[in-house]
# Entry
Amino acid sequence: MKTSVWFFLLTLGLSSGMRAQDVRYLVSEGEQLQKAMKDEDALKKFQEALRVAPNDLAALVKASESNSIIGNRQTDDKRKREYFKAARTYAESALKVDSAHAGANYAMAMAMGRMSLISSGKEKVQFVRDIKSYVDACLKADPNHVRALHILGKWHSEVTNLNFAEKAALKLLYGGLPSSSYVEAIKAYEKARTLDPSFVLNYLELARAYRANGQSDKAIEVLTRMQRLPPKSADDPGYKSEGRKLLESLM
# Structure
């Protein structure tokens, strides 16, 4: 009887260990596919990992990020929303596993940031408010989280640029928001650039913030450097093209 129990426990332990190895392998494969700019294939690997272990934190975060990235490429707002909702669902599951996890909070901030871009009125206002909470939670856990710093910069830029009606709605519904400015946006983008000088989109948003802050000379410098960067994601060529157009308009 004792032998049977020990055999069962040993088998269970080996099975759990094999599942964990499978999940790590699948997530690693997905990350390699991301680096190869094959995001749809990467998402399939993360989803496959979640079929093995539905509560695996790394796979949930990666699946959320992938949906936000792929969704942003869709030309139809309905398709965008479907991907962004999936990104939010994965992020919610990750936060249930660990509400203080940097990656989980970043994934939620990213999903809400994407949703805010295709929303308006009260819905947009709510997303804008919640983005800050999640990005702050991420940076509390990891002050050098590059992508969260980028989102923080974007938050400052977007909130500073809200129209009167949107700012009034924020004040009415939530009593307003923490102060925002292009100066704070630039500070966050510059820190992200220091930590990751290869992050193409960060250069574009940094240049936009400099231009909005009346510092076109700085914007030109940033955009010029941006053009020398090699693409590291499928979206980078498009960002570089936007950067060239902006640079031409400032020269």
Summary: Confidence is low (pLDDT under 50) at residues 7-15.
